[in-house]
């Protein structure tokens, strides 16, 4: 019962954090704090929520390129350091941590610690288009304009498969997966014009927009297409 209660509180904390990110992305006030104000005030639950959201916890700063609040950077750094992947961690967990470390370096170029070596992508080399789309949706925080990594390069080789996965997710009403796939598709070359990605993202937001995790991905996709945080 206690474990279930903790899980529920964590889910609520992640939703609240995602809502805060969405609010900043909507109004463009990238100077407004999203993360808890200061390392001392960032309890375990708050840090765990940052870890779940990954690099998207600081997405406004990554997209705007504006100078980040040192207090927020400190909280983000603490989350990165507090939850390193275990030796038996899944590939998506390893990549999420790598993405957070990359984001930390962008937020604090003077940081003495850069991102670790990229994990491998062997588990995706022969993945079906369904599996590929699912995994890319989980790793949507890696989908950043102007940033390249092994995952993004692999996705760039399979735009049609990701487009198929996007359509399948919409048909299955899996709005989180559809939003994450749509975010990747805004970056990939060779996406079929017949996909109608823009209207597809509108539909995903309409149907799944009550979930801030969906809205975050759709908003990130649109900002990626325009190249600005407005």
Strand elements, count: 0
| Share in β-strands | under 5%
Number of separate structural domains: 2
Helix content: 55-70%
Counting helices, strands and paired strands, the structural category is: mainly alpha
**Terminal Cα span:** 43 Å
Mean pLDDT: 89
Count helical runs.
Answer: 12
Question: What's a quick, concise take on this entry?
Answer:
By secondary structure, this protein is mainly alpha-helical.
Keywords:
single chain; mainly alpha; 230 residues
Structure description:
- The protein has helices at residues 2-27, 44-53, 59-64, 70-82, 91-107, 122-125, 129-138, 150-156, 159-171, 175-185, 197-208, 212-226.
- It has 230 residues and is mainly alpha-helical.
- The protein folds into two domains: 1-119; 120-230, no CATH class.
- It is globular, with a radius of gyration of 17 Å.
- The mean pLDDT is 89.
